[in-house]
Amino acid sequence: MLKPDELSQKLRDQGYVMSAEHALTVAIALHLEKPLLIEGPAGVGKTELAKVLSQALKGQLIRLQCYEGLGEEKALYEWNYAKQLLHIQADKKQEWNKLGTEIFSEEYLLERPLLKAIRTKKRVVLLIDELDRVDEEFEAFLLELLSDFQITIPEMGTVVAKQKPVVVLTSNETRELSEALRRRCIYLYMTFPTRDREREIILKRIPSIDKTLAEQIVMYVQALRKRELKKPPSISETLDWARSLQALDIERVTDAVVHQTASLLLKNKADLELVQQLDKIVRD
Amino acid sequence: MPAELQNKSVDIFLEFIRLLRLAGLRVGLTETQDALKTLGAIDDLQLAQAALSATLIKRKADQALFDRVFGLYFGFTPEVGELRLLSHKEKEQDRSENTEAQSGSFGHSQGEERNRYDAPGKGRGSRGVELSYEQALDRALQLILRHAYVEGEPDNARRTQEAIALMSRMIQKRSETNRDLEEIRSDLEKAFLKAIGNTHALETLLKEGDFQNLDFARLDETEAELMEREIERLIEELAARPKRRYHREKRGRADLRRTIRKSIQYGGTPIKLARKKRKIIEPQLFILADISGSVEAFARFFLMLTRAFHATASIVRSFAFVDEVREITERIEVEMACNPRASQAVEKVLAWLRLEGWGLRRSSYGGTFQQFHAHVAPDVNRHTTIVILGDARNNNSPSRAQYLQRVQEQAERIIWLNPERKALWNSGDSIINDYALYCDRVLECRSLQQLKEIVRELAA
After folding, report:
1. pLDDT tens digits, chain B, 460 residues: what are they?
2. B60 reaches A (C-beta below 8 A)
3. Three-state secondary structure call for residue A170
4. At what angle do helices B181-196 and B199-206 cross, to 10 degrees?
5. Do the beta carbons of residue B282 and residue B213 sit within 8 Å?
6. Chain centroid to CA A71: how far?
7. DSSP assignments along B244-265, one per residue
8. Distance CA A123, CA A49 (A)
9. Which positions in chain B touch A230 (Cβ < 8 Å)?
10. Does chain A have fewer CB atoms within 10 Å around its N or its C terminus?
11. CA distance A124 to A156
C-alpha cells in the first residue's frame, strides 16, 4: 500500500519539506521499483531529496556526478593498470594462467559508483546527478543498466545485483533527455515553491529565524521571481540570503536591504543591474 | 483501490487513456500498467488524479494537457469528493431556436468574424445593455452548436475549438463578469458537453489540433505564442545534438610524401611522421529576410532561429529588407543577449527598423538584390549558403534578377523560402519564377511542419 504521508513525515523529520503531490510521486516510484527522474531549475532541492531519501530509508547513498565526457570506465569500473604492470614486473617467472588469475582479481579492480551500487548487499540509493551533462551514448548505456541491474566484467564474470537500488536521476533542464529514458522512469518536476511552502522550508531549516522576517523574505523573493530575470533565485539562494540576513542582524527587509544584499540572491550581472534599477520591488 | 473505483470497470480507465492519446499525449502500455498498479495501491480517491498524473506524464509540458483531459472526462470536484462520470448515453440535442442569434458562419477568417459580432443589435441584446454571464454563455453555446459543431464534417474539431476560443473572448468582453479567460472557456466547454452529452462531443473538444500545419499568416494571439514556444523548443532541439566526446584534431591522416621528404634530414630514416593538415572549412550562412506585410510573421519566426545555426555555420549573418537591405546581425546578437526569449529579441530588432520608417515602404526585390550584390556579395564565397525569405511580390517594378544570378555564381547555394501558398505563386505581382532560375531550391514554408523540416536540414 502506498503511504505518501508517512514518507512525507520521514523526510520532514530529516529537515526536508515537500508537497503532498511530490511525496506521492516519490512513493509511487518506490512502490513500482522504477527510477525517479527529477527535472527542474538548479537549486530547488533535487539532489537534496536523494540524500534525505537515503537517510529516511536507512540506506547507503552512492553518488555518480555526471559531467561532459563521462564514459563507462569512470562510471562503472576500471582496472588498476599501474598496479597490474608492477605485479607483472615483480614476478617475471610466473606462468601465464596463474598470473592471469592474480592480476584480474578484486585487488586490482577499481570499483566505481555504478558497480558499487550493484554489489552492495545493503539497501542503496543511487544518485545520478546532473544527467543532462552527459551525451546520448552514456544515456543509452545507463538505460541498459537500469533495466537489468547486472554487469558483465569479462575477466571476472557477471555480477548481478542482490537488491535493486533505489535510483534517483536529476537534470537541470539544460537539454532534452531521450524519450526512452523518460519512459523508463517516473517523472517528477520540481520548481520554485509557493509562498507557504517556501516559508515552511525557511522555518524548518533555520529554526532560530524570526517569523516575521521569514515572511518578509518570502514576499521579496517571490516578487523577484515574477520579474524577468535570467536566473531567478531558487530555494538554496533564499536560504543563503535568510542566513546572511540573520547573521547581519537585519530585522526587517526593505527595498534598500535588497539593493545592498542583492548579490546573495542573484548570481548574474544582468539580473543585478535590473534589480538595482527597480525602485519598488514588491508590486501590489 | 479507492472504494468508489472498485465497482467500476477497467473500461472507464482505458477510455481515459484513449482520450489522452487523442489529445496528443503519448501513453504507452508500460505507463498504462504502471497507472493501474498505482491505482490499486492507493485508498484515497483524492489521490487518484495525482497518482495517474505521476505515472502517465513524462515531461513538464504534458501536465496542462493531462489536467484538461482529466477535468473534462471525470468532472472531478475536490470539495464534493466523488467521481462524477459523463454518461455515455446519447442525450437529446438541446438546440433551441434562437432567432436573435443569427450571425454568419465560422468558415471565414477571424477578422471577418469579429466584425460581424461587432455589428450593433445583432445577438447581443439591445444596444448598450450587457448580458448576464449565464445569458452570454447560453448565446455562445447556441452559436457554436448551430454553426461550428457539425457532426461528421472533417474539420469539425478544429472549428469547434476555434469557435469556443473566440466565444470565450467575446463573453469576457461583452458580459458582466470578472472571470478570467480560462474559467470562461472551461464553463463553455462544460456547457457544450452537457448539451451534446456523448463521447463524440468530448473527442471534438480534445482532439489534437493540427497545429503543425497552421499557416503562419493566420495565427491568432494564442496560437502565435504557442508557435513561439514551439520554435524555442526547436532551437533547443538543434542545440542539444549529441556532443562529441572527443574533439577533432587539426592534423589528420599520415602524409607519406612529406614524411619521406622529412626523412632526408635524417639520412633517409623516417624518424618523424608528417601528417596532412586538415583543411578547416568555415561555412557561412546568410539570411536575407523580407520583413514587409504578411511575410513579417514568417520572417520573425525564422529570425528567432539564427542562434540555432551558430552550431553549424561559423559565420551567420542576417539581413532585413523591404526596398533596401540592412544588416541586422549585430543588432540581433545584442538583443538576444539582453532578452531571455528569442521572440522578444527579434521583436525589438523589428521595432527598431519600424522606427526608421521601414513599416511604410513597399517591397522592391530588384532594388534589394542590386544593393545586396553591391555591398554584401564581396563576402560571399563558395562555402556560403544564402537563405532568402520572401514572397517575391515586387510591386510590378523591375526584377533585376541578373544581380541574383551574379550572387549565385559566387555562392555555394541559394535557398528561397516562400511563405505563400504555392497556388498563389506568380499570381499578381509575384515574380518568384524569375528569381527561381537562380536559386538552387525554392520551397514553400508556411507551417511549423515545413519550417521544422527545412531547418533540420539546414542545421545538419
Report:
1. 776 666 666 777 888 899 899 888 889 999 999 999 998 888 777 788 889 999 999 988 788 888 888 888 877 433 223 444 433 222 222 233 333 233 333 333 333 333 333 333 334 444 456 678 888 888 888 888 887 777 777 677 777 887 887 888 888 877 777 778 778 888 888 888 777 767 777 788 888 766 777 778 777 676 777 788 778 777 777 766 554 555 566 667 788 888 888 888 888 888 888 888 777 778 889 999 998 877 888 888 888 888 778 777 888 999 999 988 999 999 888 888 877 778 888 989 988 888 887 777 888 899 999 999 999 989 998 889 999 999 998 888 898 999 999 999 999 999 999 998 888 898 888 999 999 999 999 999 888 888 888 888 887 6
2. yes
3. strand
4. 150
5. no
6. 19
7. PSSPPPSEEEE-HHHHHHHHGG
8. 17
9. 340
10. C
11. 23
Q: Which of A47, A2, A56, A52 is nearest to A29 (CA)?
A: A2
Residue B14 contacts A, CB cutoff 8 Å: no
Q: How far off is chain A from B38, nearest CA to CA, in Å?
A: 7
The CA-atom distances, in angstroms, between B166 and each of B140, B177, B187, B206 are 10, 16, 14, 16
CB contacts < 8 A (A, B): 70
For residues B261 and B284, is the Cβ–Cβ distance under 8 A? no
Q: How far apart are alpha carbons A263 and B335 in whole angstroms?
A: 24
Task: Kindly give the pairing relationship between strand A166-171 and strand A36-39.
Answer: parallel
User: Which helix H or strand E contains A44, and what residues bound it?
Assistant: none
CA A15, A21, A27 angle in degrees (round to 5)? 75
Quickly list DSSP for A89-117: HHTTT--HHHHHHHHTSGGGEEE-HHHHH
Assigned C-alpha cell, A259:
539593493
Residues of A with Cβ-Cβ distance to B236 under 8 angstroms: 175-176
Maximum Cα interatomic distance, chain A, rounded to a whole number of Å:
85
Question: How many Cβ atoms sit within 10 Å of the Cβ of residue A140?
Answer: 13
Cell numbers placing A193 = 515553491
Within 8 A by CB and 6+ apart from B455, the residues are: B234, B238, B305, B308
Element (H, E) at B42: none
Asked if B81 and B46 count as a contact pair (C-beta separation under 8 A), the reply is: yes
- From A183's Cα to the closest Cα of chain B, the distance in A is 7
Own/partner long-range contacts of A204-211 (Cβ < 8 Å, ≥24 apart): A204/A12, A204/A15, A204/A17, A205/A15, A205/A239, A206/A239, A206/A242, A206/A243, A206/A246, A208/A246, A209/A242, A209/A246, A210/A251
Residue A40 CA to residue A43 CA, distance in Å, equals 9
Give the closest of B43, B51, B58 to A1, CB-based.
B43
Closest Cα in chain A, distance from residue B35 (Å): 10
For this complex, say whether ipTM is above 0.90: no
Number of helices followed by number of strands (H, E) in chain B: 20, 8
CB B332 within 8 A of CB B345: yes
Beta bridge partners of A125: A61, A166
Grid cell of A57 as nine digits: 530509508
C-alpha cell at B423: 497556388
Nearest to B211 by CA among B451, B455, B439, B460: B451
Q: What share of chain B is helix, strand, coil (3-state, %, to 5)?
A: 55, 10, 35
The one-letter amino acid code at A65 reads Q
Do the Cβ atoms of A24 and B47 come within 8 Å? yes
